Amino acid sequence: MNPTDQLVATPAPASLAAWERCRRSVGGGVSSGQRATAAPHPLFVDRAAGALVWDLDGREHVDYVGAWGPMVLGHSHPVVLEAVAAVLPRLQMPGMGHRGEYEAAEAVLAAVPGAERLLWSNSGTEAVQVALRLARAFTGRNKVVKFVGAYHGWHDSVYASVTRHEPGERATAQTRGQNPHALEDLVVLPFNDVERVRAVLAEAAERDIAAVIVDPVLSSGGLVAPDPEFLRALREGCDGRGTLLVLDEVITGFRVARGGAAERWGVTPDLWTCGKAIAGGFAHSAVLGRADVIDQVSDGVTHSGTYNGNPVALAAVEATMRVLAEPGTYERLEETSEQVLAGIRRAAAATGADLRPYRVGSILSLGLTDRPALARLQSLLLEEGVLLLPTGKMFVSTAHDRAAVQRTETAFARALGRW
C-alpha cells in the first residue's frame, strides 16, 4: 500500500514525502519496524535539542518519544556532547583497550546496587543473548523462563509471546521467518503470577531451568508495574535451586531509578541487561552482574563484538552516568513526570475523554488498548506539536521543563476535544 492511500491530510507533508522517498531505498521506509506504525505516518526530523524536535517542515514538537527510551537527559545534552567531542579527535574505534572502558564501567557499576562486573555490548538484543549464554554456562542447564507480554529483543530465541500467546507454557512465535526450534527452551508464565512462579521454580532443577529473565516493569506495549511480592518470589525461587535471575532493564535501567529495579524495589538479580538510557542517546549496552558469572568470559565462554567498548559511545556512557549522579536529579525527574501525568489527567477530565494515564518512574502510558483510537489521538497530538510512541507510551527526560509540561497539557486538551 502506498502511504498516501491511507491518508487524506497530514500536518507534516515533508515527512510524508520523505517516507515515500525512503521506501524506495529502505525496506518499509523505516530503520526499525515499529516506527512504521506511527500515526498518521512516520515523522522525519531535522534536528533536536533538549525536550524538543523539529520536523522537516520546520515545526517544533515537544518530544516524548525520546528515541524510544534512550534520551533520559533530553537531546544534545551539553555534558554528553562535550565528552564525545573530546574523544572524537583521538579515538574512533581502535579495536584495542582504552581507558574509557574502565572509566565508564566504574561509573555504571557505582550506580547499580550489587553489580560487581560488566561486559560491554551494542544493543539490548545483544546484551540479552550474552546474559543467557552466561546463565547457561554457569548453571549447565538450557531452559529459560520468560513472561507473557515481555519483549527481550528481536532474536529468535526470545522473541515470543509478546503481543499474542497461546494457553500454556509453550512460547508463541512473533514473526514470519522465525525458527520455531529456537523457542523450544522457553517456558512462558504470566507476569505478576506469584503462585505460578513459585510452583515452576520449585522444580527448577528437574525442569532444567538455567535462568528467569524478567522485564521488571512490563513495558513492551502498555506499562505494568511489578507486584513487589512477585519480584521477591523470583529471587527466592532462584535461590538455592541453581537458577539465575536476570533483570532485563534495557528500558527501565536509569529510568525508574538511578539503580533501576534493584534500587526501586530492592531485588538484586544475578545478571542485569542495560541499554537505551545508559549512553544518553548513543548506541551501547551492557551486561552487569556477579563477578563469578561475568568472569566466565575468561574461562571458555565467548563474548565478542567489534564495536563493544566503542570509545565514542563509552564517553557518552560515562558522561550520562555523571549527570544522573548529580544530587536531586531523580527527584526532579519524578516531579516532572508527575506534573506531565497530572496535566494529561486534567485535560481528560475537562474534555470528558475516556483516558486513564498512569506512570512508573519517568515512563508514562495513556492506558489505551484500542489501536484506532490511539492512532487518532496520536495524529491529533502531532497537529498540536506533541509526540508520543505509537504504543501510547511517553518517555519524560530531565530536559522537560515547566514550559514543555504546560504545552503538553494544552495540546492534550485541544486534541482530546476533537478526539
Class by SSE composition: alpha/beta
Can you tell me the number of structural domains? 2
Q: How far apart are the termini?
A: 26 Å
CATH architecture of the largest domain: 3-Layer(aba) Sandwich
| Beta-strand residue fraction | 5-15%
Number of strands: 14
User: Percent of residues in helical segments?
Assistant: 25-40%
Main sheet: which strands, in order across? Answer: 4-10-9-8-7-5-6
Structure summarized in a few sentences:
The chain has about 425 residues and is α/β, with parallel strands linked by helices.
Topology overview:
Layout: H1 13-22, E1 45-49, E2 52-55, E3 60-63, H2 78-87, H3 99-111, E4 117-121, H4 124-139, E5 143-147, E6 186-189, H5 194-201, E7 209-214, H6 228-238, E8 244-249, H7 260-265, E9 271-274, E10 285-289, H8 291-294, H9 311-324, H10 329-351, E11 358-360, E12 363-365, H11 371-384, E13 386-387, E14 393-395, H12 402-418
Parallel strand pairs: 3-13, 5-6, 5-7, 7-8, 8-9
Antiparallel strand pairs: 1-2, 2-3, 4-10, 9-10, 11-12, 12-14
Helix pairs in contact: 2-9, 3-9, 5-6, 10-12, 11-12
Walk me through what this model shows.
The chain has two domains: 3-75 and 328-418, Aspartate Aminotransferase, domain 1, CATH 3.90.1150.10; 78-324, Aspartate Aminotransferase, domain 2 (3-Layer(aba) Sandwich). Helix 10 runs parallel beside helix 12 (402-418) and helix 11 packs across helix 12. The radius of gyration is 21 Å and the shape is globular. Residues 1-8 have low confidence and may be disordered. It has 419 residues and is of the alpha/beta class. The chain is built from twelve helices and 14 strands. The longest helix is centred in the last third of the chain and has 23 residues, at 329-351. A seven-stranded mixed sheet has the order 4-10-9-8-7-5-6, with helices on both faces. A four-stranded mixed sheet has the order 1-2-3-13.
